[in-house]
Amino acid sequence: MDRKKKCALLLLLRRYRKKKQRRFWVHPFITIMNPVGNYFLLKYKALKTDEKKFFEYFRMSIFSFEELLSLLSPYLQKQSYKGRIPVMPLEMIGLTIRFLATGNEIRNIHLDYYRGISTVAKIIRVVCNAIWKFCLNANIPKITQQLFEEIAADFNKKANFPNCIGAVDGKHIRVRSPPKSGSLFFNYKGYNSIVLLAIVDSKYRFIYVDIGAYGKESDSTIFHNTKLYDLLMRGDLPTPTSRPLPGFQEPVPFVFVGDEAFSISNNVMRPYSGKHLSVKQRVFNYRLSRARRYVECTFGILANKWRIFHRPINVSYDFAIDIVKACCILHNFVINRDELDTPIEMIIDNSELQPLQQGLNVGSQVVSANIIRNEYSDYFTSEVGALSWQLKLI
Q: Same structural domain for residues 113 and 153?
């Protein structure tokens, strides 16, 4: 045997000796507490006897949970291996939902349900990926012109803001700082985060999400780097044809509404800045805030139902993105089936989902965008578009 082969064998032997050997195939704690592996099944059957307790436990109705189970089971079902019984899809989905709903650490899920820590972590990630992959199209449908027209009609009905096709905002979600990331994730609030940028409709549902931007990035950079903004700038986004505001003759494009963190453009409206504003400008800011509050409430509902957002997500960067993706899908999934179970006054508490840093919007206001905003201001103070109470609230 030549020298190179001997060295290679010695290195392999050293690596084998250094490799940590498992003390147990299944820890005695688990074999004692969950010998048959049916602990979760027993709890599930008990919870199903009471609809209210089931909803409190899983944050969704029995009907919604079983529908989710039927959708994902074909992709989560595993075959037995060497006589070992695999974890059933029912338990995999139940553990994941409970993890997202409570915000508990993976170690606590391990101690509560008597499954190995690595097993629980793998289950949660597999299920989160399955939720995003197999439930995305049904719960965040592809954007079409018909969808935008329906959203605009609903915003006009509920928020009295015509030609509005969505409210846009972004939130910082606390995460553990990834290794060797420097200050990439360190935001202006003083902690590490990733950004969830979302556009929502007036039913508190996500219609577009962009997840995973670095916490240090500015709002304009994040929005301008999205695929949706790229389509919007190229004219490929299927927005409806411009139409006049009620009682007016000049066609106005359909717009997204955002706060001061976003730069104004022909299709993005933001409030007038400054303190010394005219009555028209203050009315416009009030009316825009009535439409924009839907995205703030949506983030509040998200954090209130899926309390994983009430603490820093203590997993890897990619895993954290998978978790946020799954929560956005589940948010729409539950609203579409169970509707809102939380009073509106309780859902604006989104303290763990911090707002984006406000930009200065220097040099980005084009004349046409300001003309469009002025057109809205005139409409909101006209006899056709004015609300009887708006002057009392500005």
A: no
Place of tokens 């240090």: 216
Handedness of CA 18, 20, 23, 26 (dihedral sign): negative
Whether 248 and 104 share a structural domain: no
Give the Cα separation of 360 and 158 in Å (integer): 31
Name the residue among 128, 259, 104 with its Cα closest to residue 197.
259
pLDDT confidence of residue 86: 83
φ, ψ at 172 (rounded to 5°): -85, 130
CB of 157 closer than 8 Å to CB of 147: no
Please identify every stretch of the chain with a pLDDT value under 70, giving residue numbers as ranges: 1, 13, 15-25, 29, 79-83, 340-367
Say what the pTM is: 0.86
pLDDT digits (tens, 9 = 90+) for 217-236: 887 789 889 999 999 988 89
Print the domain residue range for 200.
145-392
pLDDT, position 21: 61
Give the N- to C-terminal CA distance of the chain in Å, as an integer: 88
Q: Which of 3, 110, 95 is nearest to 43 (CA)?
A: 95
Beta strands at 164-174 and 255-257: parallel, antiparallel or unpaired: parallel
pLDDT of residue 89: 95
Question: Cα(131)–Cα(240) distance, rounded to whole angstroms?
Answer: 31
Total count of residues recorded for the chain: 394
CA distance 109 to 121: 9
Distance CA 218, CA 229 (A): 15
Tell me, what's the pLDDT at 361?
A: 42
Distance between CA atoms of 214 and 106, rounded to whole angstroms? Answer: 24
In a domain, 73, yes or no: yes
